[in-house]
Amino acid sequence: MTNWLSNNHSLKFVCCFIISMLSTHYMFGFEQHTDDVATIDLQETSITNSTEIALDADWLFYWNELIEPSNFKPNKPFTKISLTNWTAFTHSNNENLPSFGYATYRLLISIPKERPHVSLYIPAAYAASKTWINGELISEIGRVGTSKDETLHRRFSQIIPLNTNETDFEIVIQVANFYHKKGGIDKPLILGASKLLLNKRSKQIMADMIFIGCLGFIGSFFLLFFLFYWNKDKAILYFAILCMSLSYMALSDRYAPFAEIFQSFSWIILTKFEYIILFLAGAAASLFFYSIFSNFVHKLYSKIIVYSFCLLALLAIFLPPPHFTKLLLPFLILMIIDLIYVYFVIMKTIIIGKRHESILLLVSMSLASIIFSVHIFFFLGKNGNAMIYVNFGYILVFLLLSMLLMTRFSNSFKELERAKEFALEQKKEISIQSNELSNVNLELKENLKNLKISNAELDGFNHIVSHDLKAPLIAMHTLVSFIEEDLDTTINTDVKNNFKLLKDRVSKMFALINGLLEYSKVTKGKKSKELFSLNNLLSEIRAVVDTQNEHIIHLPDEDLEIYTNKIELEHVFQNLLSNSIKHNDKNSALINISFSKLPNEYVFAVSDNGPGIDAKYHTKIFEMFSQLNVNDEVESTGIGLSIVKKIVYENHGIISVESEKGIGTTLKFSWRI
């Protein structure tokens, strides 16, 4: 009996042990296969309202398998892992896992019964996900599938409250990624007091709203300011684009409003758009800096910036996933190089001491660098209040930059006001000068009227000279000839010489009157142009000035088709050739005619072998009535070269002489085409 009781006690113990094992085995209310799972025991851990526990290690990872909680028994885990990008995991063939794929994560934890209400924080992953806790489907972010077509990618963080009556929890998460270079869950899950996690979430939302709202407002304000009020400063536009881009990125990264509104829209397109906005923000920041320091940066800086960010944007558009998500690294490298160059230019301008904006921009950038360092290395995820302070710091930086822009606007506005005042003064001066000009115009009209009267009087004078002066001279010459004939047999030699001298003086007076008439008529009337051969014209002139062929006149070797006033050019050449023959001291004159063509004019030259002209008379020969008396036998009025000079000047040309006494003379003149 004692043995039986003893055996009965043993049997009871065995039964109790089996019942306790069964009760533990079925504690979750579903078939749970614990023989392959090591539970993380936190029973001895004190959980308070300030506790946060990172669930980072001992996760079972099942690659290319989507397993629900009730189906784990036949499946062996791929490996035990710490949560990180699954591309860091090594496959059985010693190769890293690809970015694209799907997997299941599994973890069992045990926490004490005596605890405040706790929740599980699941960070946003670059993937669609599906979460079970103790066999119950808690949430599905996007749609998890085994292919790109079956998967709808979404990215959100979430806080999941845990049952206060349970101490043991099985966490199963299915993940599918077909768009990003990072695959799977890359941040640890956080177990903490619900009040703490919700408080941190609230403060994160508050910090985000401060950042998003203020930047959105600043960007919208400056964009409207540029579009409707002051579009002369491109820095305002670039700053507006920068603020609005950063505001959109923060909003899209945290809350993805477009994904919520358009629930079936492709997440890949939304992500590509985020990358383009990121590159746009980088370009706007660089061009904002360039607009302020355009006089101090290299001339290729703006082109390099525009082309670089345009290239990144085009690659983001056309590269397929996951390659376009790898563009973040070259973007960061470009921005670091750009930032170093910006600091260099700012310090350069401060040393030069020419820009007030340099100090303000340096203060803004230094403050931003300090805040960013504090954000990353001290407060990131540690303190909710600190995130609010950090975002306030960022807003302060943008307010300082806004102050910089408004200072530029104020200076530009003052310059504009000064310009307006100067314009008013100029307007007054113009008004005064306009009145003076009106008076001058009246005087000019009066002078034109007087000029017309003078021209009419000159025409009358010409008529008088032509008829009233020339006629008596002709009569005088004829009368002297008659007297000479009547006295031919009775007068002596002296009287004959006197009669001859008298007739010569009358002839010279007649030639002088003709020269004056010709000078007064030159360049008057219409200037008609025609196309003709220069050598044909010169041949005709040669026949006129050298009727007996006593002289040698060489025409240009190359003929020229010239379009100009033929009569005026003929008059010039005829005068020059006549002078070369008339004043030549040789029995036979040797004359060379040449020309050269310049872009807007011709240059003609007439050279002879005459006695030459002393340098001191080079300008005097073009004066009216000027005579050098080189050849005493030749009578000259001294008007011919004056007429030539007047015609040449009327055709926008210049005439000059090259000669030395006893060597010959070359007369050059230009003729506008």
TrEMBL record:
By its UniProt entry, which PROSITE patterns does this protein fall under?
Answer: HIS_KIN
| Positions in coiled-coil regions | 413-454
Where exactly are the transmembrane stretches of this chain? 209-229, 236-255, 275-297, 304-321, 327-346, 358-380, 386-406
Its keywords, alphabetically, are: Coiled coil, Kinase, Membrane, Phosphoprotein, Transferase, Transmembrane, Transmembrane helix
User: Which GO molecular function terms does the record list?
Assistant: phosphorelay sensor kinase activity
**Entry-linked Pfam families:** 7TMR-DISM_7TM, HATPase_c
Question: What is the reaction catalyzed?
Answer: ATP + protein L-histidine = ADP + protein N-phospho-L-histidine
SUPFAM superfamilies documented for this protein:
ATPase domain of HSP90 chaperone/DNA topoisomerase II/histidine kinase (SSF55874), Galactose-binding domain-like (SSF49785), Homodimeric domain of signal transducing histidine kinase (SSF47384)
- Protein origin, superkingdom: Bacteria
Q: Where is the Histidine kinase domain?
A: 464-673
Entry's EC annotation: 2.7.13.3
PANTHER family per the UniProt record, alphabetical: PAC DOMAIN-CONTAINING PROTEIN, PHYTOCHROME-LIKE PROTEIN CPH1
Output this protein's name.
histidine kinase
Q: Which organism is it from?
A: Kordia antarctica
